[in-house]
Automatic annotation (TrEMBL):
Gene3D superfamilies: STAS domain
Record-given protein name: STAS domain-containing protein
Short name of any one Pfam family annotated for the protein: STAS
Domain STAS as annotated: residue spans: 17-92
InterPro entries attached to this UniProt entry: STAS_dom (IPR002645), STAS_dom_sf (IPR036513)
UniProt superkingdom: Bacteria
């Protein structure tokens, strides 16, 4: 995992594998503590594994529970399409962000 950016956003790598789940969990905790929001930069992410998806869903639910912002930013069309096919785009707040998909 690349970790937190200077502005508190968690940057996801191109491929988020199950082996990265523990690092992702730690990064999500740190992101939640920074500015009371969970902001995730997925600009380079093309593939994300099941364990990472479960963590992102849990982080979304926790953000909702705490009433703090949760956003996956800069997600590219292939990632959005994959999450939409899995029925997870809406849960993760990515519905409507893939208008440029072909």
């Amino acid at each position: 995992m690349d970790g937190l950016e200077a502005d508190g956003r968690l940057r996801l790598p191109p491929n988020v594998t199950t082996l990265m789940a523990e690092d992702l969990r730690a990064g999500l905790v740190l992101a939640a503590d920074h500015e009371s929001a969970i902001l995730i930069n997925a600009s380079e992410t093309v593939n994300i594994g099941q364990a990472a998806l479960q963590l992102l869903i849990a982080a979304r639910q926790e953000a909702d529970r705490l009433n703090i912002p949760f956003e996956i930013e800069n997600a590219q069309a292939p990632l959005i399409a994959r999450l939409d096919a899995l029925g997870l785009a809406d849960i993760l707040g990515l519905t409507g962000k893939g208008e440029t998909m072909q």
